[in-house]
Write a structure and sequence with these properties.
Blueprint (H helix, E strand, L loop, with lengths): L2 E2 L2 E5 L2 H12 L7 E8 L5 H14 L5 E5 L5 E5 L8 E4 L5 H12 L11 E7 L5 E8 L5 H19 L12 H12 L3 H16 L11 H10 L7 E2 L7 E8 L1 H14 L3 H17 L3 E8 L5 H5 L6 E8 L6 H17 L5 H11 L6 E2 L4 E8 L7 H4 L4 E6 L8 E7 L5 E8 L5 H20 L5 H7 L1
Parallel strand pairs: 6-7, 11-14, 14-16
Antiparallel strand pairs: 1-2, 2-5, 3-8, 3-15, 4-5, 7-8, 9-13, 10-17, 11-12, 16-17
Helix pairs in contact: 2-4, 6-12, 9-11, 9-14
């Protein structure tokens, strides 16, 4: 297949293939839906907002991507020309807030048509509290969190440029197709791809990780009994029930500032600090120094990558061995050093990673070493660009809505919300992880991190014993 509806077709990228496999085999096809709302304390001009949304779609090639399947079952993508999408308006005035949330959760839980159809839905909304703005549902195949935030901001800046004469039209978005062609050229057998493959295959084959669960050693012990191998190191961590929900915990602004100040002082990323907190919690629960969990890398280093939209997330297992005698800071530096190596090779296909590891350690379907995934999102939905002074001292509300399904037991996304707090958003399979367990994880994660930043020369063992 070379064209579809007169448009050139392209293969899926490595990032998209991982998502697509997830959607293909998950019984609930909405599993890749991302639902988000951004509302502000301003009376909006709905006609101007609708015009701004349509213009933002025209400027963002990723939003005009469609997918198609050939007779052999191969999936391709192509980009349609400019379109006039329907932008609905929904007024929640008079609704109870929880009922409005239920309606947008219902929208988010509705699957897209997979082929030759838009992979987004945008609704202009007026909330029960009179805040006004936008609800967006988008498929993860065409957007990730960073590109979605960039798209939200583009709509706001376009709106401001139409309302206020002195505000210029925002800079054009970058080309999704240009970046797609670069990604596919890398995957087609480049020297860089060979170097990245060598790095990860050597890392995988160096030694075997061990499964450390949020509930302790129970799953690992059960797996060892089933395998009749007392030294077995993997465990099955999948469920037939993919029903899921989202639970949010918010860290207050002053506490969030302390975490960020520590990261700035020690010249480490927030991801390093969060990974250290999570792995120490798992170390505590399993009495095991060797801890693995899944981390995500956004792959948006260049200007083209930052502004091209699309889904560029690559997820990799991330293993660290930190003894109880190591200091908190030493543990963070181990994470930082390994993270820097990952960054240099992050274009490697996660699907290839998992396939190689499964074969090398002779794992069965569903057997893994990682109990949860972490994503840190440094960007915020808060608009701080041109025209903010014209809008006045307004308040923002940002919310993410559950799609009702999850392919993994537990996925933590940490982000910043407009009022300065940090949002710890747990997407969890409801049949695997209880709300009480999430409360416990959040409590100990914060306790470990703050014990560590208070005195980073404390040993991991001391922090665990105090937690």
């Amino acid at each position: 297949m070379k064209t579809r509806n007169g448009c050139k077709v392209y293969s899926l990228t490595a990032a998209q293939k991982l998502h697509y496999y997830c959607m293909k085999y998950c019984p609930k096809k909405q599993v890749l839906n991302i639902g988000s709302g951004l509302t502000i304390q301003v009376d909006l001009d709905w006609d101007t907002l609708r015009q701004s949304i349509r213009e933002a779609i025209s400027r963002c090639e990723a939003m005009r991507v469609r997918f198609t399947e050939d007779k052999e079952g191969n999936v391709y993508q192509y980009m349609v020309k400019d379109e006039e999408p329907e932008i609905r308006h929904f007024d929640f005035t008079g609704w109870k807030p929880e009922h409005a949330d239920d309606k947008m959760t219902e929208w988010t839980s509705t699957p897209f048509e997979p082929y030759d159809s838009p992979m987004y839905e945008i609704v202009m909304i007026k909330m029960p509290d009179a805040f006004q703005g936008i609800y967006i549902k988008v498929n993860h195949l065409i957007m990730d969190a960073q590109s979605l935030i960039a798209f939200f901001k583009d709509i706001i800046e376009l709106y401001c440029s139409k309302i206020y004469e002195e505000i210029n039209v925002p800079k054009e978005m970058a080309s999704y197709i240009a970046q797609l062609e670069k990604d596919l050229a890398y995957e087609a057998g480049s020297k860089a791809a060979a170097r990245d493959r060598k790095f990860f295959e050597e890392l995988i084959s160096s030694s075997e990780p061990i499964f450390t669960d949020i509930y302790g050693k129970g799953k690992l012990m059960a797996e060892r009994k089933k395998e009749k191998n007392p030294n077995f190191r993997a465990a099955t961590n999948v469920s037939d029930n993919v029903d899921a929900n989202i639970s949010n915990f918010f860290l207050e602004e002053e506490a969030a500032k302390k975490l960020m100040a520590f990261c700035e002082e020690k010249q480490v990323s927030m991801t390093c600090l969060l990974l250290m907190g999570l792995r120490t919690y798992l170390q505590k629960e399993n009495d095991e120094d060797d801890v693995s969990l899944t981390t995500t890398i956004a792959r948006r280093a260049t200007l083209l990558e930052k502004r091209c939209g699309g889904s560029r997330i690559h997820c990799f297992p991330f293993r660290t061995i930190v003894s109880r005698q190591d200091t908190f800071l030493e543990g963070i530096y181990k994470i930082r050093d390994m993270q820097n190596q990952y960054f240099r090779h992050a274009n490697y296909s996660p699907s290839e990673y998992y396939a190689f590891r499964k074969q090398y350690y002779n794992l069965k379907d569903g057997q893994t070493y990682e109990p949860l995934s972490l994503t840190y999102q440094p960007l915020t939905m808060k608009y701080d660009g041109p025209g903010l002074d014209k809008l006045g001292d307004i308040q923002y509300h940002v919310k993410r809505y559950s799609n009702g399904a999850a392919a993994h037991a537990l996925y933590l996304t940490v982000s910043h919300v407009p009022d300065g707090r940090m949002d710890f958003c747990f997407e969890h399979q409801t049949g695997v992880v209880t709300p009480e367990k999430l409360q416990e994880i959040y409590y100990y994660l914060c306790r470990i991190m703050f014990r560590g930043i208070e005195d980073s020369s404390r040993t991991v063992g001391e922090i665990i014993d105090w937690s």
